[in-house]
């Protein structure tokens, strides 16, 4: 059978030759007794054994994963641990952190198997690590993963080692999946649990992991794709509490994608987590202006008319509506324009050709050492979008037209060379606006006023 399609139930039906392992001294006699007592028994009986002697079983299972490399046996032990941790009692994860395991490196085998094993082994190792890390006693943040004191002489895997190792593997799965259909859902599901951890948020952002989630934010129809979408949005919500992640979200297509999903989704849990994300981001940087431009207020008002059962969602919609209305009042036309330029989302909104806008706001372009002009020039260098290039050329020509020192400033900022390159652009709209900009640059304000688009 293909190991990628193995199920826990199939693996647990195997008969493992424990006596052979004892004869070859890979396990001890007491290990064999514990295993025979536990193996192939009813779940209620196993639960009682774990309640009575759980730490001993953890020690046996980890030792087997450390000392035995036969694939069928490794899969079997991982399936046992997975079953143990996902059963009714979540406190079982704490068994891994018992003080009596202070001299055991309980996490090392799982971290190793993330990279060495087949898909079944990788997926189970990831799930087990996530559950055990999440279930650790929160009072022991500075201790080692297995419960040992941090001044232990032997090199033992720390909680930070575990979390960083998990992030590395999860990012690898999102970039180049080990399984065509299950890798991404498994990775995102694990991230949705782990991103509550500060170390994970930091490592994930440093590894440029946020951009790997963005393509997964798209409308879903099947149950499996809805769950993946929900857990992806849950990850974004958790990241919306972390400033470095917010900076990345602000410069990506995250917000438009979330708006598209919330407009089309009927799944309450998906709508809820996206609305809570909007509420977190509303007051951050340019997000408020972006939300206004995307027409989010009308979307929120439409969502409020639907029959949601979740009171938290209704409250979040009300707060978001109030916040958006306040934002609309705050945003002057120049602030809106500024956010459009800084985000690189240039379009032919009315203000670009509005003479009143340019006359009233021309001095605002001098703020932060002509920051807006510099960004417009950067767009000419970096953008592949014909609309953005056209608008940027036009706006530079408008600045030349309305600012008394426009020609000198634009020339000093080395814009002429960039614009001239665009006069040979394949898009007619780009070449037309590049030509207008060059004409105004050479003619000056006195004659440029006669030039019309």
From TrEMBL:
Identification of the protein by name: V-type proton ATPase subunit H
Protein family (similarity comment): Belongs to the V-ATPase H subunit family.
Pfam families recorded: V-ATPase_H_C (PF11698), V-ATPase_H_N (PF03224)
Protein keywords: Hydrogen ion transport, Ion transport, Repeat, Transport
Subunit field text: V-ATPase is a heteromultimeric enzyme made up of two complexes: the ATP-hydrolytic V1 complex and the proton translocation V0 complex.
One Gene Ontology MF term: heme binding
Domain ATPase V1 complex subunit H C-terminal: 330-442
Function: Subunit of the peripheral V1 complex of vacuolar ATPase. Subunit H activates the ATPase activity of the enzyme and couples ATPase activity to proton flow. Vacuolar ATPase is responsible for acidifying a variety of intracellular compartments in eukaryotic cells, thus providing most of the energy required for transport processes in the vacuolar system.
SMART domains: ARM
Source organism per UniProt: Linum tenue
